[in-house]
Amino acid sequence: MAWEWYVLWILIPLLGWGYGMFTGVKRAVYNRLGYRTGGSLPTLVVGNLSVGGTGKTPMVLFLMRAFSTERVGVLSRGYARDTKGYVQVSAQSSAKDVGDEALEIFSSLDNPVVRVCENRLAGLAQLKQEGQVDWVILDDGYQHVALQPDKAVILTDFNRPFWKERFSLPIGNLREFSGALLEAQALVITKCPLDLSMERAAEIRSEIDFDSERIFFAHYRQSQPVCIGGSSVEPRALLVSGIAQKKGLQEEIRGWEIVGHLPYRDHQSFTTNDVHYWLKTCKELNVYSLILTRKDAQRLTHNELSNMLLNEGISIYEIHTDVEILWNQKSELLALIHP
After folding, report:
1. CA terminus-to-terminus distance, the chain
2. CATH number of the domain where residue 237 is located
3. pTM across the whole model
4. Which residues of 307-336 are buried (b: 16+ CB within 10 A; e: fewer)?
5. Residue-averaged pLDDT of the chain
6. Domain that holds residue 171
7. Among 52, 90, 155, 250, whose CB has the most other CB atoms within 10 angstroms?
């Protein structure tokens, strides 16, 4: 047994810290050797240091609305799409074409400029050629160290802050260790309770090795369900969610009786088999409405899935998240991160 303990003694640090050490070394090498390149347009990166559910897409939408008087666009990787390279997001796009997050951003705004490209530098060059925007918000991309962004804002979940994480991927949730925060212009702690006290906020600020005046707190408010198909008005529904952080989602839907919750992994590609199961579950629970997050709803567009539900008399509702910067510090945040 001694050799097994010896192997574990070696493997645990490698698995728990190896990925974070690699990304940290990569960032340091790129900085030291001058391998990083500014984009063809001014950029603001919305990123994180840990995986899953920090609220990047709602923050991108918040920023797009805050800067709506300017010619600003969005560039995303287009995670979980079937295509490659640079793709324009349009009203005819599907989640398989551009990814559900980019499609959610496009469908939430009035004809915005949204593009996807896994190579951020190449995507920015294409946007520059198109000439429709003056600067770009990058949905994720903080770990794309080949790009030297003009500004960056890091997000972390109030209930799962990165500085309390001990291990990096694949054992833990960290993409990078906390030292990478120092390259950002601001840190936003997301999903804070609306009644968070300034005293508690001061305690949190003291835990972080970062300029306290550049730390902001945001409340994420769940919207009421909005009907996007069907005619049922009874506030009683089955909830389907395929997002990173599902905890508490059901409780945030106020005024509705949620008779069941079918959770899926983040970016789950829904199939006809899934919809048949939803229909079966709705029949068993005697319910005629289905609630999905707005991101999940994107995976029902431009395919037969939504019609399968509507043809069986099931109405489709969607919910989304709105962002509020606490204590009227919105203008300070925007001034700090505007490229």
Report:
1. 57
2. 3.40.50.2300
3. 0.93
4. ebbeeeebbbbbbbbebebbeeebeebeee
5. 93
6. 37-221+324-337
7. 155
